[in-house]
Structure formats: structure tokens, C-alpha cells
Design brief:
Beta-lactamase; 732 residues; Penicillin-binding protein 2a (Domain 2); 23 helices; single chain; alpha+beta; 31 strands
Length: 732
Amino acid sequence: MKSINWRSTAAVAIVIVMLAGLVGRLAYLQLINYEQYRNDALEQYTTEYTIAAHRGTLYDRNMTVLAKSISVETVFISPKHIKSTSETSVIADGLAEILGVDRATILDKASKTQSQYQIIKKNVDLATADLVRQFILDNDLSHCVHLEEGSKRYYYYGSLASHVIGFTGVDNQGIYGIERYYDDILKGVDGRVIKGQDGIGNDLDYKYESYIDAIDGSNMVLTIDWTIQSILEKYLQEAYDENNPRNRAMGVIMDVNTGEILAMSIVPGYDLNNPYTLDAKSQALLDSFAGTQEQVTTYKSTLLYQMWNNKVVSEPYETGSTFKVVTAAMALEEKVVDLDDTFVCPSSGIVVGGIPIHCHKAGGHGIQTFVEALQNSCNPSFVQIGLKIGNDLFYKYVDQFGYFEKTGIDIGDEASTIWHKNFNEVELAVSAFGQTFKVTPIAHIRALAAVANGGYLVTPHFAKALIDDDMNVIKTFEYDNSRQVVSQSVCDTIIGILKDGIKVGSTKNAYVEGYNIAAKTGTSEKKDVAGEDGFTPYVSSCIAYAPAEDPQIIIYIAIDEPTGTDYYGGLIAAPVISKVLTEVLPYMKIPKNNTDADNTYSVNIDDYRGMTPEEAKSALTGLKLNCKIVGEGSKIVDQLPRFGETISEGGKVILYTDDQRLERTISVPNLSGLSPSAAANKLIAAGLNIKITGAYQSGSGSKASSQSIESGSMVTEGTVIEVEFKYYEGID
């Protein structure tokens, strides 16, 4: 009996232990490890899709779209829900054909049978995505082949402002430029869709769906002006092609009063829609590179980073003579010089601390006033001015003009000034004309802009406002431009000196017909990077303020290590400023200065079609133009030059009165080195017309440097030959 009781007790104990274990396990599953098993169940019976947020649109200041996200889709498969090897084969064959993806790649992704998310291709356009949908429908593959909505960044103007805008990566994250700096504002927040499915990927009978909306990124209005940017890039590219610089060319146009950057360009640019494609010069370097495949890949990466780099903010350089504007401001503010003070520029140069310092003008300038020294860009004179200022004051003003701080420009990667610790008499002497220390171009532009706006340091910037999709302003960006570093009177004096210098000084090639501008050239030698091949590297630059009476903008042009015949900033950078401002100032609706007597006597050709020969001849005579009437008709039916073209006074317009005419062809003469009047006379005598561009002012001195149609070319009588003129004497 006792034995039976013992066995019963043991059996009950075992049952209790088992029940306790079961309860404990249930408690563990339900209470302690609840989240894990819940998530495992959800993963098995739900599928989650991402709803990509649309990145905010980038506009220029006039609401021209620069960058926008366009709808695309991602095609992916769920290997876990593929039913058979035959289904795998169908998927691989179909998607390979539609998407252009390697079949073996698809098979490899399909082999990951525990995965529900294997991307086959991103950024699929909508038309191709529709083909994938039809493929899914035709083959009953909705349980394992899916599409996911997304977006792709599209840059409407390719390489325009490429170093400003930057680009995004495969996941729409900002990689460079504005796209990276304002990534948090532009990118938005992705949404999600969670759907209920059975074990083989089919939607469940009951509806289970959780939907979290995507929050699109904010739209941003930039300070960039598409038209001004295009003009700057056109002429900067022309200068790049002509001078073939080793280290690119750059240009900036900024509002001197607000710091708004209207245009910024580095040439060569790159295609924002294909940012991993090298520019032509970089590709040539890569093609000539000899090394292992790994070395070639590394070298390509180096070239890409160099191509993407915005040298305006990230490459400190020695400014050269454009810094004389700042030195002059120091000297006048501290009253260590007067305008009539004289300085000697001897033919042998000047010696400081045993170091000879020469002038760019052979034979020197002799005795000249402070005003003339600045206009002539005389190094020995500015050495003497710098020594008058002294080390302490010089350092103080370099600091006050903001060179020892970053400008705060909203693009990232801004570098700092490089300044010598041991700053003695020699360093002071050469620093007075912009050598030995290095600053970024943007820091220099900011300092120079202060001279044009009454002495205030502005914050260079690109962000103007945030707007919603209905163009309502959400936020405007504010910047501190309140710090004054030099007086209004000193600024006015310097602008006046530079304005007058356009006619007599080293900046004559920056002349803009009909406008008064103030300009300063610079040519700095890069002694620390001189090559072993005997090449002497220079940075050739020019800055200008326009209009001089009430400066609105500063323009900066620099050509880094030109390899052509000329290297002075006054010869290769100043003409770029002339060309750019000739188009930009009228576009900005800045009126011409009607008191400017030094014009090129240019005439805009009207449309004479439909007039009688007598009416047309009378109109042309009034414009100081000649005409030649061809044909026996009673009305003008055609003309050369065409309506809207510009030629100089004294030219000839060919007027045709019928369609049957025998056109006279003429060989274009060589105009190289001729004065404007000599070139005009030679062309007119040959039966051709001239359009004078570049640095032509009444008087003498400028010479033809290029012509639009090569000498020896055969052209129709009356054709317009555009001739550019430059000054070569006294240019820095």
C-alpha cells in the first residue's frame, strides 16, 4: 500500500514539475522574450516597404529649377517566397531582359533564401517599371517580385554651378556642395508601408496594413542667378581653353552689400548627373597612368576628388597685387600716407633685409604718388607703404579684414589662412603686395567687398529662403553683416582711385564700354610649388567693382598656373572681367554711364527688309554707315550684317533687293597687333565689318589680340569680324 502511495506521489510530483516547466516556458515566451517572438511572427507574416521621401527642389534666385527629385522605382525580390527553381529561372530571365542586369547576379541574389529583400536594380524609370509590373502579372510573381517607389536627383543644367550645387549618392544623401551642407533640410524623412502576408508571400484575407507617410524635404531658393552663372561660365571656359592652366580657373560674382553669391564657377566643371565621369583633362591623365589595376583605381579616386573640390573655398593661395587694395586701406585709415605722398620705384628695384624686390615694369616707374602707385600696381612703392604701416598695424588689419577666421560660407570644406610665425621686415615688405601668406579666394573676396560697401564684412552665402510646394516662403536666411573694419571715406577714396586707374593704370584690359568700374589686377608667383620641369607657376587674377559710382557687385577671376605665352593677371584675367560685365551689367538693369566718352562708336544694325533702297540708305547714313545695294528690286529682301548684329561706325551694310544675286567672297586679312583704327580701316577697305571688343578706349595703346574668323578664310562681303583688343604695356 505504501508502495502504491509513493508511486502516486511521484507521478503527481512529475506532473507538477512538468506543468511548472510549461508555465515557466509560457511565462518566458509571453513576458520575458515577448518582443523577440512578436517581431519574429511579424517578420514571417508581414512585409515592409519603404516610401522614399522626395528631396527638396533647388531653385535659383529667379525660381529657375536647378535640381529636382524625379520619381523612380526600385525592383527587388523576396527569395524566401520563391516557390521553385523553375520560378527562379523565370525571374532571372525576365528581369535580366527588362532591366539589363546580369542573369548570374539575379540568380546569386535569389539563392539567399532566408532574405525577403534583395535589390535587383535601383532608379528604374517609370516606363521600365511598368514593364516589370506586366511581367509580374503575366507570370503570377506578386508574392516574390516587388517594386518600391523612390526618387532620383536630376540636375537640369548638367555641369552648371557643379562645384556649388554638388550631388547626391545612390541613397539620395548629399555628397558634395549645397546638397551635402543642407542635407538635413533637403532630404526629408522616409515613410513605410507594412502589409500582412501568409507564409508564401500572398496577401492575407484579412486586411492588415500600416502606413506611415513620408515627409518630403524642404525646397530651397539659392542666391545663384542662372543667367549670371551661365555668362560667367562661358567666358571662364574660354579663358581656360586659351591659357590651359594646370590647376583650373575660377570666378565669383557676389553682392558686396549682402554677401549673396550670384555666381561661382570652377573650370573645368563636371556633369552633376554623371559625377563619377572625369573631365577631359583628368581622363587624359588617367589614360596615361601606368600601374596595377589597384593603383589605377586609387589614382582615379584622387582625380575625382580633385575634380569635385571647390578651390574657391578650400585652396589657400598667395593673392598677389589684388591685396594692395587692403594694404592701401590700412595706410589711409591709419593716416600713415597721404594721397600726394611720393614713392620711388628705381630701375634696379628695392632691397629689404638684403633681398632685392623688383617691379613688374622694366626700368621701374620712377617717382610716383600714392595714387599712381596703386593704379600702376608698383611693388617697390607698396614695400615702402608696408614698412610705414609696420608689423603690428599690418597684422591688426589682416585680422580685422577677417583673414584669420573662416567666412562661414554655407558650402563646407572651408580652409584657413596660412600665416608665417616669424614675421619680420622682409615678410612685411612682400606681404604688402600679397606674397608669402596664403588665404582662400572666398576670404579674399569677402575682405575686398568691404572696400566697396563702406567697410563692412559680409557673410558670403548661397541660401536665400525655404519655400513650400505652393511657393510660400517658410523661412528666410539672415546673416550678420554689421562689423565695420574700415571707414566709408577710405573706401570711397580707394574706389575712386581704382576707377580712374582703368584709363591709365594696369587694369585697362578690364574696361567695360559705357560703364565706370573699379578694378585691380594681381599676378602671384607660387614659389613653393615650382616644378622641376622649369615651369614657373603663377596665379593670374583680377577683381572689379561695378558700377564704380555705387558698387553693387564684386567680380573675381583667377587662372591658376596658366601655360600660355601670357601670365599677367592684367593680360589674361582682366579681359574675362570685361567680357562678363559687358553682359552682366545690362542684364542686371544697371544703366550705362552716359558721360563715358571713351566708347567704341558701335552701331546696332536694324532690320531694313521691306524698306525701299532709298529709305534704307537714308537710315544707314544717319548711323554713319555706308551701304551697297545689290539687285534691281524695289524693296530690300535681305541684308548683311543681319538684324541685331553690332559693327563699328564707317562699316558697310549690303542690301539685297532680289533673291538672285552673286555674292562676292573676300579673304579675311590678318589683324594681329594692329590698333583699333588700323584694324577697322583694313577690314572696311576689304569690304568687311568690324566689331570691336575688349580693351578699346579712344587714344592709342591697345592692339588686336584675336579675331573671330581666322585670316585667310573666305567669307561673304559685309561679314562681321569680331576683334578683341588688349593693352600690353604697363600691365601687371
